[in-house]
Amino acid sequence: MKKSHSIHKIISDGEYAKMNASAKEKGHRLILAEDDTDMRDILSFWLEGEGYTVISVPNGWEAIRAAKKERPSVVVLDLLMPGVDGYQACRYLRHDPELYDVPIVLFSAVFVDEEERQLGFDVGADDFVMKTSGFNSLLTAIDRVVGDSSGRRRHEPVDEETALLVRQEIESAVGAPRET
After folding, report:
1. CATH code of the domain in which 78 resides
2. Which residues pair with 54 in a beta bridge?
3. pLDDT tens digits, 67-84
């Protein structure tokens, strides 16, 4: 209980108290990839309080694996992670024939200039949020891409040959077994 209490205390500086009551009925599965253990625990706790079922993982490769297994409603990717980063994981998911249309939100604690932000959209992100914007900004982005399909970018499947090449490129970067 001490962990929950300390997490509540951290979030309660105005944001935890603003929980959306209707959010309790969401029931969506969310994959959260964040390499910072404390931040991952805080966000998981908070998003579960908002009604999401959270599957938290420490890096982009684990997010890809979890997405293949769980078929989530949304994937939230930290931008800078060891191994497969948020950009690479997003690109991989957009090139997966089963997951190309799953909404993706990228988020970052470091300053991201307009070019880096645009790169996030170019690799397929539906939204991009700075961690310094606060938890409510992240929740707003997640709710928007999950709940309002008209407000979300449309992603089309790519041809199988291109998709396979992209997936193999990212898999080889982390030493993962290649698809055949």
Report:
1. 3.40.50.2300
2. 30
3. 999 999 999 999 999 989
